[in-house]
Structure prediction request, 512 residues.
Amino acid sequence: MNTREKEAYLREYSILKSQGKPFFPYSVAKDSIMAVVVMASIILMSLVLGAELGPKVDPTTTTYTPRPEWYFFFLFEVLRIIKPPSLTPLAAIGVPTIAMILLFLLPFYDRSPERRPERRPIAMAAAFFTIAAMAFLTYEGAHAGSPNQIDMEPPPAVLAAGGETLRMWEAGKQVVAQSGCLACHKIGENGNSLGPNLSEIGTTSSRQAIARTLVNPTAPMPSYAELAPEKRDALVEFLARLRGE
Amino acid sequence: MANLKPPLPRALRPQPKRPGEDDGKTKIGRKDKVAEKGISTLDWIDERTSLSGGARWLMFRKIPKGTNWFYTLGSATLFAFLSQAVTGVILAMYYDPSATRAYESMRYLTNEVFLGEFVRGMHKWGSSVMVILVFLHMGRTFFYGAYKYPRELNWVIGVVLLILTLFMSFTGYLLPFDQRSFWATTVGVAINGTGPLIGPYLNDFLRAGPEFGVTTLARFYALHMLVLPGAIVAMIGAHLYLVARLGTTAPPWMKAEIPADSRKDDA
Ligand code: HEM
Prediction:
């Protein structure tokens, strides 16, 4: 916007403003009606949906689903989609940071004086794309099995062995997914990197060493001594076969 | 011609009534006396603060032609925030921000206190309502091009408000200290830590140490109860000052009809 366009806008606006109605009581009346609607919705939601309190926090738990408030689902979904470890920081901080910077600077790169939506095709296209993407990600995030799900094919050796070995492997994968190891460990392209990456744990640790870690780990890793023996065996079997294949 | 009399000397002219003076003609009822008291109280305050000019400027400023219901979304957000503030204060009367007692205090509030679950529900769902309203309000200002000259700064302040609102939600989610809130926050904080440059520091700051521990809860509590609401109140103040100062935009399709008399002046 150059100086002439700015002055034209201010002139036009001052005329429109002088022809308007005073804030009190006209806008105040509308705002009050809206306030009543907001209050009624909140009260209704509280009455209908309540506020359940989940089970007490237990850092040593073996089954939980970390789930954020629904309006953060899209962020979780971005994380799930961009799984390679090297890309996770980009997904979690990079994408939101870039989106925020673009949002902050909007008035400084969109400087055209045009305000009518139908004459701002680029802005409208970008807006609809953003809304559609966020709606899609939120929907997917709401339905996806949360971040503790493991996408991984059995390694060739296990496939070749088939039968009991394959069954154990699948069972172990299930236990790992349910036990929340992914909150702290990376396995392949799944999980977070609070603790060591387990993708190749089978090459560095024996079955006994892994089993020992589960029963008697170093803090902050919780102990999984309570795990049922057959689950623990499956878990160890699964981990021991992680050789980065 | 009968009116052509010499003017009366000033001292003989009828004096206009002074405020509060009884001219003995109009009857003064009890209602008038109460009104009089109210007005004189306001006058007393105004004499010492000069607030009435500002209040008049705020309340009787003109809102341009054509504004519609979408313009109420901002004040609806403000209202949702006020509701959060009130219910939040009630929750704070029962909440105990220590790692060992937080869950118990919330359970007591939810199950034992009269209307406790109702107030908690209002705060919990109110947060969703507020987030939705912030986004809708942002959408309104975007589609109406309200972020353009001269309101750029108000858009920037708005984005700060959006981020603060989301941080409120993030910090509040941990406070009930049940399984879900604990694990979601553990993962959320760990994700923060993978961020570029300040990630690890932000992570340590949020957790109050290298590990997710007892002090983390106290830190989230302080952020959620003091720091973030204070920042939001300050930012809303600036936001609303700018709204009143610059005026609300007219819808983009409104065209000013040049008033007839001013067109004559141009000619
Ligand atoms: C706590 C959050 C917020 C509150 C309480 C709030 C409140 C308000 C109110 C009451 C108005 C008056 C006009 C209207 O209601 O539409 C307004 C205007 C405005 N807001 Fe917000 N707002 C918030 C967040 C935001 C956000 C997230 C943005 C955008 C990023 C934003 C950008 C604007 C702009 C540009 C205007 C001027 C609109 C115009 O003049 O037509 N606000 N805000």
About this structure: Chain B has ten helices and one strand. The mean pLDDT of chain B is 86. The domain at 69-246 of chain B is CATH 1.20.810.10 (Cytochrome Bc1 Complex; Chain C). Chain B touches chain A through 91 residues (CB under 8 Å).
